[in-house]
Amino acid sequence: MEDATGLVSRLEALATRSITPVGSGSMVWRSWGEGPALLLLHGASGSWTHWIRNILPLAERFRVLVPDMPGFGDSDAPPEPHTADGLADLLVASLYLILPPPIRFDLAGFSFGAIMAGLVAARLGHRVSTLVLGAGHWVPYEAAHQINAAFFELLGG
Fold this sequence. Notes:
- This protein is α/β, with parallel strands linked by helices and 157 residues long.
- The protein has helices at residues 4-14, 52-59, 84-98, 112-124, 141-154, and strands spanning 16-22, 25-32, 37-41, 63-68, 105-110, 128-134.
- Strand 3 (37-41), helix 2 and strand 4 (63-68) form a beta-alpha-beta unit.
């Protein structure tokens, strides 16, 4: 089995790297594969490497997009104040550059990434084909309300 450093290096070499503006800094995106777009959001204190064992199998069927969310990995810190809503707004703005409308996409996140995925879906529900949330932990009431509303919109009601 390939060691972690070798796997990171190999996947980094296979990735297409894109950079979008975030406040006065930048947000780093990596993508692999072709096909329908699949956006993966990492957990707290993480980076794209949280998805490292999933990327290549998923890239056989999808265009896999994995950002280092603002303040994590290779991305610059977001402007203050640091809030979930503010971070979701930055993700949405970057998505408009990476996947311009009307491109639809599947969205998955775990832990902190699940919270962010829910907030992104609440803002872009009409563009989200599938939403998968794993181990989303605590979500503020206002965010939970937005996420629920996005689910109802996706379900046509």
